[in-house]
Amino acid sequence: MDKEVLEALNDQLNSELYSAYLYLSMAAYFDHMGLSGFSHWMKKQAEEELGHAMKIYGYIYSRGGRVVLKEIKRPPHTWNSVLDVISHALEHEKRVTESIHRLFDLAREKRDRATEVFLHWFIEEQVEEEQVFSEIKQMLEFAGETPQTLLILNSRLAQRK
Ligand code: MG
What distance in angstroms lies between residue 148's CA and the mean position of ligand 1's atoms? Predict the structure, then answer.
């Protein structure tokens, strides 16, 4: 595999691991606030991110590349409000989307068709990731961050399988 593509895939793997770390930190913040439904939802999100990282891990080896793990950045551990957490998560996912698009462009430039096809799943997944965070953000903005809204959302988010 092309060196630059391999390096970018390893960077993306790191960024998925950071996402898992960030969402686990958000889950811990919610647990600290007594919002166990929000926390449950974020833990599921963190697991999903670990799944994304493992998908890239598997792909690198299937192409004869080597996984080289790097340092994972320390995530923040406190926010100003629930809306602040969700907005942060949405902004984070938008940056992840951009980085996957850049990776796709690089694969195309290097004429690496297999990597382009591999990335199709991630491109679709990002649409969904941005959508779920946008929905929660909209509900919070629409209903306002009152105790009532938080409790309703908390029981709804607790149901994520
Ligand atoms: Mg991800």
Answer: 31
Distance from the CA of 121 to the center of ligand 1, in angstroms?
A: 11
Q: Domains along the chain?
A: 3-157 (1.20.1260.10)
At residue 121, what is the residue type? W
CB distance 107 to 9 below 8 Å: no
Distances (CA, A) of 46 to 32, 41, 58, 64, 138: 17, 9, 19, 28, 21
Q: What is the pLDDT of residues 106-143, one digit of tens each?
A: 999 999 999 999 999 999 999 999 999 999 999 999 99
- pTM value is 0.95
Is 27 in contact with 39 (CB distance < 8 Å)? yes
Q: Could you tell me the distance, in angstroms and rounded to a whole number, from the CA of residue 18 to the centre of ligand 1?
A: 9
